Amino acid sequence: MVPALPARGAWRTTARGMAAALLLLLACAWLLPAAPAVATELRLGYVEYFLPGVDRKDVALAVELWARRYVETERGLDVRLTAYHSRNEMRKALAKGQVDVVHLPTVDYLLLAREMDLKPFGVPVTDGEFGERYVLVAAKGSGITRVSQLRGARLLVQAMSAGPESLPLRWVERQLRDQGLPPAARHFSGVEYEVQASRVLLPVFFGQAPACVVTERSLRTMIEMNPQVGAQLERIAVSPPLIDFVMCLAPTVDPSLAPRYAELGLGLSDNPWGKQMLLLLQLDGIAPFRPEAIEPARRLVEQ
Question: Residues 140, 207: contact at Cβ < 8 Å?
């Protein structure tokens, strides 16, 4: 029997706020053969960025639950989970062969892949697409129809990473550049990041902020819960689908194992534990990595 997860209200984080730690444990399941395996240790690493609205204690509790009840107890696989606080820390760990599998924000993956032979094998799928589409939203009747009209305004962004690590912000930066406008740091009075969609959408809805950037799925969910959100908010621009993270094998791992990871990942939705994990993370699934899936993000990083 699959143990029940804590009630949704018990978590102070959003499902996506826990993605970095939880998806690493999900990767453990992919690495397991169908027959019982001899106990061993799998070294998993991820880059951890802090954002307001993400409680690390909640993340740690979720990691402990999944590691103890599933990965270790049921599968007999010891897990060494390491959080690295910067791209540079992860770079050093990879160079020294200290990790086997890594979960990387897309910006970190693209930059580190220039230096070392990372072997990507998994990317998220949402609404039948690789990654998420982001939407620049303003209040209807505000007269705001272009990003140029937000000069000197405060911008709220739903994102898993802040600053240059944030793909939604890089997408906004591209909008500014294409219109001959200054960078976000000069164009806006400030940029604030939140994981929870409600914390960026509701201030715009109530007139406390002029505009925000949210995922298409988050906006749709809020409209389904409260149709007034759709009646009072207007889409200004929509991004191409952007992948938030990439799951990779370290350069020291035998590359011949990569096809096996992809094969096992495709069957994830047929596994009860996998279904619960995907539901928790608000993802449709984890798909095998394909180079074209990351191209929209690559164009933003290499601009």
Answer: no
pTM: 0.76
Share of the chain above pLDDT 90, in %: 37
Residue 193 sits at φ, ψ, to 5 deg, of -115, 140
Q: Which of 259, 215, 253, 169 is nearest to 19 (CA)?
A: 215
For range 87-113, the mean pLDDT: 91
Question: Average of pLDDT values for 126-148?
Answer: 90
Q: Which domains does the chain have, with CATH numbers?
A: 8-129+243-301 (3.40.190.10), 133-238 (3.40.190.10)
Confidence of residue 24 (pLDDT cuts 50, 70, 90): very low
Indicate the residue type of 218: S
The crossing angle, in degrees rounded to 10, of helices 19-30 and 258-266 is 110
Q: Can you give the pLDDT at residue 272? A: 59
Report residue 40's pLDDT band, with 50, 70 and 90 as the boundaries: low
pLDDT digits (tens, 9 = 90+) for 51-80: 445 555 665 565 566 566 665 666 566 767
Residue 15 has a pLDDT of: 42
Measure Cα distances from 231 to 88, 223, 234, 297 in Å.
45, 9, 8, 31
